[in-house]
Amino acid sequence: MKINIKVTSDHVKTIEVLPNSWNTDDYRNLLEIMDYGDTAELSDAELEEMCLLSLSDNEPNEAAEIVLKYLFKDQLNKGQIANLSHEMLNEHPWEEYSDMSMHETFFNAGQILYKAYNGKFPHPKAIHFHVTFTVKSKMMLDVFKDDTEAQIIRVLAQGMPDNTLLKRLFKEELVEGDFLEAKDIIWQLNKVSETDTTVTFDILSSNRWFEDFKYVEDYEATLVHEQE
Q: Does residue 10 sit in helix, strand or coil?
């Protein structure tokens, strides 16, 4: 069944800090790693401030190594962390690292290092937006029940120009079949609301994939859905 979908976006904005990324426990843990001392009397704001100051007391690559060890202790070995700690001064692993499942966490690493060093590290940027899909009948919304991220991306891509990176790298996946990378392209996904003929999603991803979506106006898209 071919489904026609009206696509409307709003609240499209660039963000520099991801929701639910760094918290007071993280700052406290990093301070402990850096042998700060007793943090019991520090307020939440002071914990963040002292963590950033303590990171900046190190050479940039040393600070990067501390952050990467903390975030990726079970995923990266010592040599990988050492290499990445130098590369992060010029590169964007939240966009370029081969394992896309790690991109969101790399973004968080880049964000805290950028803030600690007042811009010496590259500036991570993400995109956050709402998108509403409108169809003619409730049954048509079933197209988003399975492989939700993949189906959403297929609809979003139709509103972007042909030379957008998403279309160039995932030409076949955007048409049909398995789209295993979809869950790593969309970092955070929440359903905001649903009616009989509309569904609205809250989406957070890298600017790398959806930079062109910032300039998209309402449009019509289509998906093919095989009914069971």
A: strand
Find all residues with CB under 8 Å of 76, minimum gap 6, and list them. Answer: 68, 84
Q: Which of 201, 69, 83 is nearest to 134 (CA)?
A: 201
**pLDDT 10s digits, 177-215:** 899 999 999 999 999 999 999 999 999 999 999 999 999
For CA atoms 110, 116, 122, 125, the dihedral sign is positive
Nearest-CA neighbor of 105 among 132, 130, 78, 71? 71
pLDDT digits (tens, 9 = 90+) for 68-82: 999 999 899 999 999
> 65 and 34 in contact (C-beta within 8 Å)?
no
Which residue shows structure tokens 């095989």?
226
Residue at 118: amino acid letter: N
DSSP state of 98: S
Neighbours of 228 (CB within 10 A): 5
CB 130 within 8 A of CB 8: no
Within 10 Å of residue 32's Cβ, how many Cβ atoms? Answer: 12
Do residues 88 and 113 lie in contact, with contact meaning Cβ atoms separated by under 8 Å?
yes
Gap between the terminal Cα atoms of the chain: 11
Q: CA 128, 130, 136 angle in degrees (round to 5)?
A: 155
Rounded to whole angstroms, the Cα distance separating 84 from 126 reads: 20
**Beta-strand pair 219-224/2-15:** antiparallel
